[in-house]
Each structure stands twice: as structure tokens, then as C-alpha cells.
Amino acid sequence: MDQNRLIEQVKAHPEFDRVGMILTHHGVVRGTSRDGRAVSGISLQVHRDQIEGIIEFEKQSSGIVEILVEITDKRELSVGDDIMLIVVAGDFRDNVLSCMARMIDSVKQIVTSKTEYFG
Questions:
Q1: What does each C-alpha distance from 1 to 36, 82, 84, 114 come to in angstroms?
Q2: Who contacts 3 (Cβ-Cβ below 8 Å, separation ≥6)?
Q3: Closest of 116, 111, 106 to residue 59, by C-alpha
Q4: Is 35 helix (H, G, I), strand (E, B) or coil?
Q5: Is 31 left (phi over 0), alpha (psi -120 to 50) or beta?
Q6: How far apart are CA 75 and CA 110, in angstroms?
Q7: Which CATH architecture has domain 3-118?
Q8: Buried b (16+ CB within 10 A) or exposed e, 16-52
Q9: What is the DSSP string of 58-119?
Q10: What is the pLDDT of residues 57-109, one digit of tens each?
Q11: Per the confidence metrics, is the pTM higher than 0.90?
């Protein structure tokens, strides 16, 4: 996964002159669960058929120019492995920040599901 490649793709967008902010989210496998237990890895399931609909819906949000999502193809991941990249580009900070929060929530709740392994 390459954030720079995705940012360059955004910069090549025909409406890039409307962009005042590019925000990225780079999700990785964390070494601890929410309850503090040590995590050795995760199993990831991705429902790729849901991604485009979420992107198209969020692109209709005020000020949003481009949204790119990349999710790993690996099913079994270790601590530190890349899970996903999300890039949101838009006009003003408040529009981009709120869109990114919705994108992260949607991808985590609708597109991906994970099982943590402990030990």
C-alpha cells in the first residue's frame, strides 16, 4: 500500500483546483485489543462489493472532490501489517474531516470484519 501513489492520483483529478485538504487514514494491525489483551494477528474478511456504493454516496457530500480506498488482499495479518488506506480530498477541513470519519466507520462496519487472535 502506498499513500503517496494515492495522493498523486488525487492530484491528477481534473477538479483538483477545488481541493484545500487531502486527509489519509492508514489502518494497521494493532498489538493489543480494545480491552488490552495482546493480539498476535487478525483474520480479515472484506466485502468489496460494498465499497463503491459507500464512496459514491460520500462523494455527494458538500465539498468532497475525491475518495480513494485500498484494502489489503491478505486474509491473515500480523501485528503491524497494513489493513487499509483511505484518502479523502475536499475543499475545507470540516467537510473533509467529517467525511473521513464517516468513511472509516462505514468501511469498518460494512466492508470489513475481523477476528483477533490472542497469544
A1: 27, 7, 8, 19
A2: 24, 26, 85, 87
A3: 106
A4: coil
A5: alpha
A6: 17
A7: Alpha-Beta Complex (3.90)
A8: eeebebbbbbebebeeeeeeeeebebbebebeeeebe
A9: HHTSTTEEEEEEEE-S-SEEETT-EEEEEEEEESSHHHHHHHHHHHHHHIIIIIEEEEEEE-
A10: 999 999 999 999 999 999 999 999 999 999 999 999 999 999 999 999 999 99
A11: yes
> Length of the chain, please?
119
Domain spans of the chain, in order of start: 3-118
CB 67 within 8 A of CB 103: yes
Record the cell numbers describing residue 76, joined without a space.
Answer: 491473515
Which residue from 118, 97, 106 is spatially nearest to 52, judged by alpha carbons?
Answer: 106
